[in-house]
Amino acid sequence: FRRRLPPEELERWRRDLGLERSYLLFMSNPRATQSSRKNLDTVIRAYARARQLAAFDAPLVCVGERGSSEFKVRQRAAQLGVADHVRLLGFVAQEALPALYQNATLFLYPTLYEGFGLPVVEAMASGVAVITSNTSALNEIAKDYAHTVDPLDVEGMAQAIAHCMADPEHRNGLAKLGLRRSEAYRWSRAARKTLDTYVSAIQSRRAGPHPNAAAAGLDGTGAADLTMHGEGRQP
Predict the structure, then answer these.
(1) pLDDT of residue 169
(2) Nearest-10 Cα torsion for 63, 47, 39, 14
(3) What's the pTM value of the predicted model, to 2 decimals?
């Protein structure tokens, strides 16, 4: 996501996906549009309201498995008068995602709950301004580096969208902040931290068992609990 695609490749993907030159992007995981925590209904309501607050024609592009919720989503968009401006793109191949992010004008991810929020980091690394929730892990990632909103506040979300779409300088500033923030989530940095942990464990083992090893339930290597409780975990 960090590698900037050449203009001709971005244009090719834009044409292949049938997208406008400017669009707002909402990303969900497969089948996530069926889950209320992804908050798509609120996003559509806020998008419709934002179009009343600021003059912009960019459509809202929603990526993710459509599932049984598609009818309700289209019905909501029609009720709000934005049916022609909401695109349900459905499933998108992994190789198309970098271009999808980099071509976007604004990324929306004001979900109700996230264990981590990888799409926010991906969007930031792609150089896109982000609007996301001021709750859960998303606030930890995005506070001071994106426009954070109450995910249940339609008017507040709409104002954030309108501000970003009407003020390119503000939008570009958020994009730059997001790029800076995404540096903290490089896999190489995570790998270095993991390596440091293992080196520390090895050094502790060479230093001999801890005086309180028996009480701590260690086997004298200083690493028993680490392997039991940390297996399979990756940052």
Answers:
(1) 97
(2) 10
(3) 0.75
